[in-house]
Amino acid sequence: MTTSEKIKKSIKDTLLDPDGPVLDDDFLALCGERNRRFVERLRAEEDAERAAEAARQHRKEHPRIGVLAIQGDYAAHAAALTEAGADPVEVRNPGELDTLDGLILPGGESTTMLKFLERPNPAGSSFFDRLRDFAATKPVFGTCAGCILLARTVTHPPQKSLCLLDATVERNAYGRQIDSSILTAPSSLPGDPLEMVFIRAPRIAQTGPDVEVLARRDESPVLVRQGNLMAATFHPELSSDRRVHRLFVDTVRSQYGSKE
């Protein structure tokens, strides 16, 4: 801090001290126009600092989490995020990633989502490339098709993916739409067994050593975590149980706090 900054801070602390002089309009009128403007500028700076700190605190408590709004029930994800304490945003353009603290990749048809994500944009890089860069540094949660997109390896049949989650995922492993089901099973989350809605669900066939399994269907992982990544082969947004979304929101909060 320079000498002039120290002097300014000392004056500012004195003038804004609640136990100091009462700087009402009559007092400022006696101080001259130059001093009055100086005090008003200090007051404006102080108000701006308080507003910025309040905004930072709100953002930390209610992180801004995007939901890729291409396919799937992204509106249900947004509602679940709101109930879990986040500020949800529907994302349709790569530039919208810049304002986010985290992102959900919802269910849908993974091949259709890939076609959309791989389309070139005027900036040169594709949405797919921007998404991979985003997921390398910020929390991302993939459900069903989103789990497929995150996986390192995709089978049945093979397809391109972001290659971020150290797992092999088999597409449509539990059959067709008619074979969809709702199950409950124990999980690592606090509370009762977890309700899980499976719709043409993929299967996590293999996981790497850094992948934590949080829930299983039979012997297969259905909810996993790896660092700032989460993936589920079911649809937590279609259940009234918000523990999975709360876990992701807490992950985003913890990472946001580490950047402060």
Plain-language structure description:
This protein is α/β, with parallel strands linked by helices and 260 residues long. It folds into 2 domains: 55 residues, no CATH class; 197 residues, Rossmann fold, CATH 3.40.50.880. The protein is 38% helix and 23% strand. It has 8 helices and 12 strands. The strands form 3 sheets. Strands 2-1-3-4-12-11-10 form a 7-stranded mixed beta sheet. The chain has a 3-stranded mixed beta sheet with strand order 5-6-9. Helix 4 links the parallel strand 1 and strand 2. The longest helix has 29 residues. The radius of gyration is 25 Å and the shape is elongated. The two termini are 21 Å apart. The mean pLDDT is 86.
Which key phrases capture this entry?
260 residues, Rossmann fold, 2 domains, 3-stranded mixed beta sheet, 8 helices, 23% strand
